[in-house]
Amino acid sequence: MKKDILIALIPVVVLIIVLGITIHVFGSEALSGASQTALLASAGLCCFLAMTHFKVKWKTLEDGIRENIASVSTPIVILLLIGAISGTWILSGIVPLLIYYGLQIISPSFFLVCTCLICSLVSVMTGSSWTTIATIGIALLGIGQAQGFSEGVIAGAIISGAYFGDKMSPLSDTTVMASGLSDVPLFSHIRYLVYTVVPTMVITLVIFTVMGFAHPVTDASEIDLYVQTLAQKFHLTPWLLVVPILTGVMIARRMPALIVLFLSSVIAAIAALIFQPHILIEVAGTHAPQGLELFTGMIKSIYGETQIETGVPVINELVSTSGMAGMLQTVWLIVSAMAFGACMTASGMLHLITRLLIPLCQKRTGMVATTVTSGTLLNAMVADQYLSIILTSNMFKRVYRERGYEDRLLSRSIEDSCTVTSPLVPWSSCGMTQATILGVPTMTYLPYCFFNLISPLMSICIAAIGYKIRKIEH
Predict the structure, then answer these.
(1) Deepest of 52, 93, 150, 160, by most Cβ within 10 A of its Cβ?
(2) Around Cβ 361, how many Cβ atoms within 10 Å?
(3) What stretch of H or E contains 444?
């Protein structure tokens, strides 16, 4: 048995070492192919060990890979549509308008805490951290950069708020999944989350408030430059707010995410035709067919990389877009990560590794700490929060019941680890998605995702105190 466990650890150790080397050597370019290669090579090593040592048939591994990749087909399409929204919302003037207003309304001293709160509110209403970050998050990133904040700090505030809402919203798929797999009523699960989530959020907001007041006073001329340049380049009108309002209405009516994102992209593209025809002509370039410049520019805004010349380099970068094409590296990474996770699961190696943790569950604090640690490690090993939630629930459901604890303690522990730590793993679907959407490397924003970093620790602390944790009387 010990030999089997050691062999099961080999692919994970190799992956961590190789990824560490590739990130050190290639830096931000590691996501252009080196990280994907490391994942696929580790998957190949896992298959070799599974077939030679564990006598697992290739058909079993192949079926596992197929099912795993199929399970993320919808998130992949959502990711492409997020790329389309990113392009159309910028070129239509929606994001520039939000930046324009935001720079004049939000004080730099309160920017970080306001960013966190705004993203929290939007995420609670939408139930999606991804949608929140891809829409209002991009606008807030631009405002923060104009006010002189580093991109890592801004991204940390955005992600902290977005994942607070993702945990607390009854519309969130991860919240529904964590409660459902643990056999806990949805609103009972959310109410129980309050005891760990609220203290974590309060600490997070205090940190961002202190950081905001410690930020050097922003040069007013710099903000004026952003405001004037955006107003000169784009036709900024309150009518553009119709697009985010309609998007919010569709979300409030609980329309499927794919439909909301698709329609929002289409409406924003139409807004670009109406309000920013000069931008579309510029995007189309000189090679566009005569008479079809607007159509060419609109289609390019949806799928391709675009550069707008404003005369100010930093603003050029702010309003540049990558469209759906910019998401392809992320899709490639997700597919590679799913292949590795499938091989580890189908071969039984992941089950062997997790069995090491069960003896640590004898006492309440150790049990919750082990659950939280497992959820976090599974995010790194299988690179997907949904798989982490499923596997963690399956691993510990019986343990919690045997120890006499409520199922909602398990569901809360899962949310406090699997959901919030997913964007902190550079090669996970969430980590790569947020890094791609915001254009900020995962390791750059990770130190500032205070809510995500504190949540697992808060879960363990509340377990140690024993607050609102009771055993079931048999």
Answers:
(1) 160
(2) 19
(3) helix 442-445
Q: Which amino acid is at 198?
A: V
SS3 116: helix
Cα–Cα distances in angstroms (integers) from residue 56 to residues 46, 73, 89, 348, 349, in the given order: 11, 26, 49, 9, 11
- The answer to whether residues 412 and 376 touch, using CB atoms and an 8 Å cutoff, is no
Q: What is the pLDDT of residues 379-390, one digit of tens each?
A: 887 677 777 777
Which of these, 441, 445, 433, 442, lies nearest to 86 by C-alpha position?
433
| Beta carbons within 8 Å of 408's beta carbon, 6+ residues apart | 182, 184, 188, 189, 192
Q: What angle do CA 45, 39, 178 make, to 5 degrees?
A: 110
**What does the H/E/C string look like for 45-89?**
HHHHHHHHCCCCCHHHHHHHHHHHHHHCHHHHHHHHHHHHHHHHH
Q: How many CB atoms lie within 10 A of CB 123?
A: 29
Stated as kind and residue range, the H or E segment containing 269 is helix 257-275
Stated length of the chain: 474
- Per the prediction, the chain carries an average pLDDT of 84
251-262: pLDDT as tens digits: 777 777 788 889
Cross-strand partners of 405: 471
Confidence of residue 237 (pLDDT cuts 50, 70, 90): very high
Which one, of 273, 262, 264, 260, lies nearest residue 242 by Cα? 264
One-letter amino acid identity for 353? I
Q: Cβ neighbours of residue 468 under 8 Å, at least 6 residues apart?
A: 192, 195, 462
Closest among 356, 357, 370 to 6, alpha carbons compared: 356
For 328, residues 6+ apart whose C-beta sits below 8 A from its C-beta are none
Which tens digits make up the pLDDT trace of 55-65?
999 999 999 89
Ramachandran region of residue 96, left (φ > 0), alpha (ψ -120 to 50) or beta?
alpha
Question: Structure pTM?
Answer: 0.72
pLDDT tens per residue, range 16-74: 788 778 877 876 677 678 878 888 998 999 999 999 988 999 999 999 899 878 877 87
Distances (CA, A) of 91 to 16, 147, 233: 39, 22, 11
Summarised one tens digit per residue, pLDDT across range 422-466 is 899 887 778 888 888 888 988 899 999 999 999 999 999 998 898
154 within 8 A of 115, measured Cβ to Cβ: yes
Q: pLDDT band at 126, cuts 50/70/90?
A: low
Most confident of 85-94, 127-136, 444-453: 444-453
Q: Where are the alpha helices (DSSP H) in 215-256?
A: 220-233, 242-252
